[in-house]
Structure formats: C-alpha cells, structure tokens
Amino acid sequence: MAVSKNIAALQNRFEKEALHTPEEAVGLVKSLAFAKFDESVDIVFNLGIDARQADQIVRGTVSLPHGSGKDVKVVVFANDQAKEAEEAGADLVGGQDLADQITNGDVPLDWDVTIATPDMMPVVGKLGQVLGPRGLMPNPKSGTVTTDVGKTVSEFKAGRVEYRNDRYGNVHIPIGRVSFEPEKLVDNLLAVADEIARSRPPTTKGIFIRKIGISSTMGPGVKVDTRAVTELIKARK
Residue 172 and residue 193: Cα distance in Å, rounded? Predict the structure, then answer.
C-alpha cells in the first residue's frame, strides 16, 4: 500500500513498532494529527477469533464516558413509541410508511444508527438488502431492537456506539476527536477496551485481544500495550 508523504514523514517521528501506554499513545496521536479539520480518533482491536464462525462474532454497544464528538443521526421504526422516540431526539421516526420511502429511494441512507421496536421487525426485516450492507440493520445483540426506545435513542445521541468485528477479526471503534483533552480520550479508550474484553465469545481459545492500535483520521497508527491497558483498567476499578 502506498504511504502518503505526510504519513511517511510522521512515521519517522516515532518508533512504529514500539508499544505505548494508553496515555503515551493518546499523546502521540494528538501530536501527529495534521489535518485542518478536527480528526476522529479511532481504536482498532485485532482479536483472536475465527470471524467465519457465527459463534465467534463479536458485536455489541458501548457507552463512551465523554461521547464520540460526533453528531449521531438516529432513525427509529416504531408505532406506539413514536412520540417517545421523537422527544428523545430521534432524527427520523416512522413505520411502514418510512420503510416504503426507504425502499423507493426517497430517504437518503445517511444515518448512523437504526432502532426498532420488536413489533416493527417484520417490516424492517424486508429492508435487509438495503440496510444490511451498510451496517444499519437493528439487532437485539447490539441493543437496537428494544421496547425502551426513548432511553436507547438518548444513549446513542450521548455517545453510545455500536461495534462488530470485520471478516479479518478486527473491531474498529471511534473514541473521540483530536480536540478532546487527553484524559477524556484515555477514559474512552479504557471503557471500550473493557467492553471488548468482556465480549469474548466462550468458544475462542488462546489470546483474545492480540493487538491494539489507535490513530487519527489522517494520521499513522500507534501501537498500544495491551498489558498496560489491562493493568490500568484494573487499577481504576
């Protein structure tokens, strides 16, 4: 893969293979960010799973203590709880009518999270070919199929994020913005790492979290010491 001149120059400013404590890694990422916009800071976990096995899929949601810094757009499929969803801040709420609009291409697929009440799943299920490839299908495992619509909408708006492993066994999660104070990024990083550790499928063997790295949108990846993360999480409990 070709590396841009900016990335190549930044990689010469630190040891690429060195492992860093969460505090050191966050400091490096912030210092290496060069874009003119407020870059997202993302964490990636390389997991010891067989992503081809259904019983080893890692997915769920985690609430970031300080939010992601992103304005999350939420779409809700509900009937009786429609007003509750609207009052909680949902950007778009509907039922069969909304499903028809999506099918007809009248609604841009530009939102981040889809929430549905259980009774609406037969309707939403028919949108699988449209929403599925974009990661927008609601799912009970991620808490997006629920009867507690208001609370769920509020949590996603406040910084609750979904995660799911890709086919290579990696999980990517945003943990904030470059403009965040270092302490807030570290708090978010630890909250996410703790959640991922607890999501280990029972059928996996050996080391579960193999590698951790963080980076800004345009910046190079910085490796994080998994032992240091584990120790810091234990120390804070």
Answer: 11
Q: Are strands 59-63 and 160-164 parallel, antiparallel or unpaired?
A: antiparallel
What ranges do the domains of the chain cover? 15-68+160-236, 74-158
Second CATH level (architecture) for the domain 15-68+160-236: 2-Layer Sandwich (3.30)
Which is the CATH superfamily of the domain at 74-158? Ribosomal protein L1/L10, domain II (3.40.50.790)
What mean pLDDT, rounded, does the chain reach?
A: 92
| Cα separation values, 217 from 30, 64, 174, 209, Å | 11, 18, 10, 23
- Place 11 in a pLDDT band, splitting at 50, 70 and 90: low
- Do domains 15-68+160-236 and 74-158 share one topology? The answer is no
Which residue, among 163, 183, 185, has the nearest Cα to 175 in the 3D structure?
185
3 state SS of 71: coil
Residue 12: pLDDT band with limits 50, 70, 90: low
Contact 190, 66 (CB under 8 A): no
The helix, strand and coil proportions of the chain, stated in percent and rounded to the nearest 5, come to 40, 20, 40
Q: What is the pLDDT of residue 15?
A: 82
Quick: pLDDT tens for 158-194: 989 989 999 999 999 999 999 999 999 999 999 999 9
What is the Cα 201 distance to its own chain's centre?
A: 18
Helices (H), the chain: 5-11, 22-32, 82-87, 96-103, 121-125, 128-131, 149-158, 182-198, 226-236
**pLDDT exceeds 80 at position 14:** no
Tokens of 216: 């800004």
